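Q: What does the predicted 3D structure of 3-beta hydroxysteroid dehydrogenase/isomerase domain-containing protein look like?
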Amino acid sequence: MLLWLCGGGFLLLAYLWHANRAISTAPAEATKLAQKPWTKDEIREAYRKAQTSPTDVKPYLFSKKNRRYIVTGGSGLVGGWIVAHLLIRGEDPAAIRILDLSPPKRKEIAENNITYIQLDISDPEAVQAAFTSAWPDHVKSLPLTVFHCVAYINACDRAPDFLPIYEKVNIHGTENVLHAAQRAHASILIATSSASISIKPPTYFPWPWQRWPKNIYQFIPNADPATLDAPLSSYGSCYAYSKARAERLVRTANNLQSNFRTGTIRPGHAIYGHGVPNPSSITYDYLRRGDSPSWLHHVISNFVNAQNVSIGHLAYEDALAKSPNAHIDIDPGGRGYCVTDPTPPITYGALYDVLSTLVHPSTPVSFPYVPHILMLLPSYLLETYVLLRLRVRYVSWLPRVTGNIAYVQPAMFNMCTLHVVYTDDKARAEIGYRAPIGTLEGFVAAVGEWNRGVEGGQ
C-alpha cells in the first residue's frame, strides 16, 4: 500500500512538473514574433529622450472637425486622452462634454472648463438628460460625435453569478448610450471594445504526451472573434463576454440611411500609459503595488499605449466622417478594429525590466518569480471559496476576498498567462490608423510621470 502511495505521489509530482514546464516557456511561434529584450542602457537612453524630447502627437490626431463631442468615461485613461487630443488639435472646449461617475483630474480639462456631468451610465434617464442638456449657442448646431469609453473592468470573474454587474454597465449602459445618441441626432458613435473578446480560454493541464496546453499560443489578426454571440463558457471572463455583447450592439446600430455611423476600437492587449493615475494602466498598477510576485516573465503579448488607443478612435471618426484624410476603399461603418503599439509584442519580463530600472528609489518595485503551477492550483480553491460565500447564504458571514489576492483566480489566468499576438493591419489599411508611441517610449513616459509625482510629494 505504501509503495502504491509513493508511486502515485511520484507520478503526480512528475505530472505537475510537466504541466508547469509547459506553461512556463514560450512556443517558438510566439518567440519569433517578440522583440528582443531591452538592455539597461537602451532603457535609460529611452528615458532620457522621453524627458527631453517626447514625441509630438499632434500630426497623428487628424484634422479639426468642428463637431460637438460627448465622451462617456472621459475621466478615465483612454477617455481622458481622447479629450486631451481633441483640445490639442483645436476643437472648441465648449463643444466637448464629459459624462462619467468620477470627476476628471487632468489639468488641461480643468484649464479649458470642459463640461462635466456626473452620472451612472446604467441609469437611462440620467444618460438621456446628459445628452439633451443645452449646449452653448455657438456650438449647438454642430454635428455630434460620441466616444463611449465607460466599462466595468475586472478580469477575475468567469462564473455566471457575476454577470449582472457586467451586464448592468457594459451591456445595458451601452444600450442607454446608443439610444440617447440616436435621440440627440448624433451622426458618429465609436465605442471602446476589447481584444479579449477574441481570446479562447486555454487549458493549463496538457496530456502527459503533449508539449503545450491547448490554446496557450494564439495569433489573432485584428482581434477578430469567431462570433459575438458565443456563450459565457467560450470566453475567458465575464468581462470579455459582456464586451462582445456590447460590441454587437454598437456595430448593428450602424445605419447609413439614417446617418448614424458606428463602430468599435479593440485595444490589444494590456493598456498602459500616463496622464491620470488609473489602475486600468498596467504600468501604474504595477508601480503602486511595489512588490508583485509574478509567473508572467516569459509571457509574450502586445501592449498598447492609451494615447495610441485614443488615436485609434480619432482615426475611426475621421474615416466615418469621410474626411479628405481618410484614404479608404471600403465603408468602415459597423466594424471593429484592433489597435496596438507600432512595435512588436514583448514579454512581461521586458516591462518588469523597465519599471525596476527606472522607478524612483523611494518606491522600488520587484517581480520575484513564482512557479506558475503554485499560483494556478490555489486559484481554483480561491474561486470555489468566493462562489461558496456567494451562493450559500449560511456562510455569507465568511470574510470577503480583497486586495491583490482577489486577482488569483482562473479567469485572470485566462486573460494574461497565454501568449497572444494581435495585428492592427486592418485599422491601418481601412481607417488610416498610425500609432506614434512605441512600447518602450510609452513605458518610460509612464515611469517618468510616476517619478515626478513621487518627487512632488503626490
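A (community wiki): The C-alpha cells above were generated from the sequence. The mean pLDDT is 91. The chain has 15 helices and 13 strands.
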